[in-house]
Design a protein that fits this description.
It comes from Burkholderia paludis. The protein is an alpha+beta fold. The chain is built from 16 helices and 24 strands. It has four domains: 182 residues, Beta-Lactamase (2-Layer Sandwich); 110 residues, Beta-Lactamase; 110 residues, PAS domain (Beta-Lactamase, 2-Layer Sandwich); 159 residues, 2-Layer Sandwich (Alpha-Beta Plaits). α1 packs antiparallel against α2, α13 packs across α14 and α14 crosses α15.
């Protein structure tokens, strides 16, 4: 233990070279330290003496007697620096002379030390105001710093060797008292922490509906905590300690399982005893409980002697689980009996997709099982029509990227049902790992698509001839004109009229007239092929657009139509009904404002053909 004397102008205590590593317990006033301060002051005839201890980053005065160096410094006031040093600074500021040793080993004068405010002060005067003239560290047996004993006086004389030894003895007394006090304070804090923890554990067990039991296997007794008894509606004195009575309270259907679980733990076949079962309450009803326990004592033959454990009331959890099972069963029944497929589709961040849920409707929608599509969505893609597969994949990609609803109508080719239409609708969500999950529904849209197709046919087709009606023909003709404008290709337009059709109706009757119209329509379809546009635009008037055809091609086509009309006989009651046709021709031009213009020119050519005797072909001439 070293003693140093520091002479300052202010008498403030300098900061220490050491600091405690751990938080130190709060100490009460210590009469033993006050006695040491009185002894030190009286022995050295000093103005005062005090003991300071580092706490919360600052020096705290624990005991004092006499005058302190700072008139504002009182016991238990945090006004001193971090710690008083046990050695002088290694290096003094420039221009400062060497220090002065407390025990008389002069190294020069005057002395410069650090004051309590961290400023450098130079002692150059002869002032005798009270200040710290010597200090000695208080060290624990393990060398840990406990505090500092300081002597305060106005004198500047250093302590001699005997006085240094006496100061060390007084410091040892103070250190021992401080160590005992610190140990007692730490013990009190630990005890308070244990009591607090115990209170929290008791509160937690009580509030969680958990009770504690302790079984003496050898004597056949089992003891319950008050919370355990209250859980079943019993007062603290109302339950016996006999294990046989405990077994009698078990539900008859659970008793064997409980005994088997207990025996398995006794025989070390399980690491602990844990079982859920029913137990009879005081009012005769049964509660579901979860019991956990462990053998804590065995004899030398490894037989269980003592076992402790807890019991938790899980009745509410079991009831909730039952309600959840019922709700899940209801949802399953609903989704399995509603036509269509209810699904949850997951997409991992790497793009792999699989169906994490699929209702029984998957067997009808895709002719697959839920297990097949749970392994991966590839099985579904094998069912999608090749012409629609790219659109199917792209729609899911866009829905995932933008988190927009997925809606798609697509075709599937099924082993049993053949070509069918499907309609999908789902909502996406982003998952925590950056993937996507869809919840949706897929229905059979085949019947609706058939109805839509029939409605479309009825809206665009002439009911008698099955050709495009005037509205549909004009829409298709506009598309052909756009092709002429954008590609520069040619297209021919023909207007056709059955000659003397009114006379045919008058002679043969309207049913024969209708047959004649259907007969001529089939003839036109056969001649134009899949690329031609054919429509009925009036009573006995027909129009044709021949894409990628010039006037010469159109003229040759018209001649074939006339020949077929004459050669393809239409018979009625063993009599031939003769048909002839007049035709007007023109070409679409890129400068045309609409398809009506080339049709109007072809109609003028048709009028000229009829005017010149019918059964003729005329090409429009401007």
């Amino acid at each position: 233990m070293r003693v140093r004397m520091f002479i300052t102008e202010t008498g403030d205590a300098p900061s220490s070279a050491h600091a405690p590593a751990d938080r130190q317990p709060t100490l009460p006033p210590l009469p033993e330290l006050e006695a040491v301060c009185r002894l030190a002051r009286a022995h050295f005839g000093a103005a005062g003496a005090f003991v300071a201890r580092t706490a919360a980053g600052a020096q705290r005065v624990l005991a004092a007697d006499g005058t302190l160096p700072d008139p504002h410094l009182e016991p238990s006031v945090e006004s001193l620096p971090d710690r008083l040093p046990d050695r002088l600074p290694d290096r003094l500021p420039d221009g400062c002379p060497p220090p002065h040793d407390a025990c008389g080993a002069s190294a020069g004068s005057p002395l410069v030390v650090w004051n309590a405010n961290g400023n450098v002060q130079r002692n150059g005067g002869t002032q005798d105001a009270p200040r710290i003239v010597a200090s000695c560290e208080l060290a624990a047996p393990d060398g840990a710093h406990l505090g500092t004993l300081c002597i305060v006086d106005g004198a500047r004389a250093p302590l001699d060797a005997a006085q240094c030894a006496q100061l060390r003895d007084l410091a040892a007394l103070a250190a021992a008292a401080l160590a005992r006090a610190a140990e007692a304070a730490a013990l009190r804090e630990r005890l308070a922490a244990v009591e607090e923890h115990s209170s929290l554990m008791t509160l937690a067990l009580t509030e969680s509906g958990t009770g504690v039991w302790d079984r003496n296997v050898e004597s056949g007794e089992i003891h319950y905590s008050p919370a355990w008894k209250a859980m079943l509606g019993y007062a603290p004195h109302e339950l016996s300690t006999r294990i046989e009575d405990a077994y009698e309270r078990l539900h008859p259907d659970d008793r064997d399982d409980v005994k088997a679980a207990m025996l398995a733990h006794f025989e070390r076949r399980t690491g602990c005893y844990e079982v859920e079962h029913r137990v009879r309450c005081k009012d005769g009803t049964y509660k579901w409980i979860r019991s956990r326990g462990k053998v804590i004592s065995r004899d030398r033959n490894d037989r269980a002697l003592r076992m402790v454990g807890t019991t938790t009331d899980i009745t509410a959890l079991r009831e909730l689980a039952a309600r959840l099972r019922d709700a899940a069963a209801l949802v399953t029944d609903l989704t399995d009996h509603v036509p269509g497929l209810v699904f949850q589709l997951q997409q991992a961040p790497n793009g792999r997709r699989f169906f994490s849920y699929a209702s029984a409707g998957v067997r009808d929608i895709y002719e697959l099982t839920p297990e097949q599509i749970a392994r991966g969505a590839e099985a579904v893609e094998t069912r999608i029509h090749p012409a629609d597969l790219a659109a199917y994949r792209q729609s899911l990609h866009e829905s995932s990227a933008r988190l927009t609803p997925w809606r798609l109508e697509y075709r599937v080719l099924l082993p049993g049902q053949g070509l069918r239409w499907r309609e999908g609708d789902a909502r996406p969500q982003r998952t925590a790992d950056g993937g996507t999950v869809w919840h949706g529904f897929i229905t059979d849209a085949t019947e609706r698509k058939h109805i839509e197709a029939e409605l479309h046919r009825m809206a665009t087709t002439d009911h008698l001839t099955r050709l495009s009606n005037r509205h549909a023909f004009m829409r298709q003709s506009e598309a052909a004109l756009r092709d002429v404008r954008t590609t520069g290709r040619t297209a021919a337009v023909l207007m056709l009229d059955l000659d003397h059709f009114k006379a045919l109706n008058d002679r043969w009757g309207h049913p024969v007239g209708d047959r004649a119209l259907r007969h001529f329509a089939r003839l036109l379809l056969a001649e134009t092929g899949p690329d031609g546009i054919v429509g009925r635009v009036g009573g006995e008037e027909f129009a044709i657009v021949l894409p990628r055809s010039d006037l010469d091609t159109a003229l040759a086509f018209a001649q074939r139509v006339q020949q077929r009309a004459i050669q393809a006989r239409l018979m009625h009651e063993d009599q031939q009904v003769t048909l002839t046709v007049s035709i007007g021709i023109d070409a679409m031009r890129a400068s045309d404002f609409g398809a009506y213009q080339p049709l109007s020119r072809a109609d003028k050519a048709l009028y000229l053909a009829k005017e010149r005797g019918r059964n003729r072909i005329e090409v429009y001439r401007a």
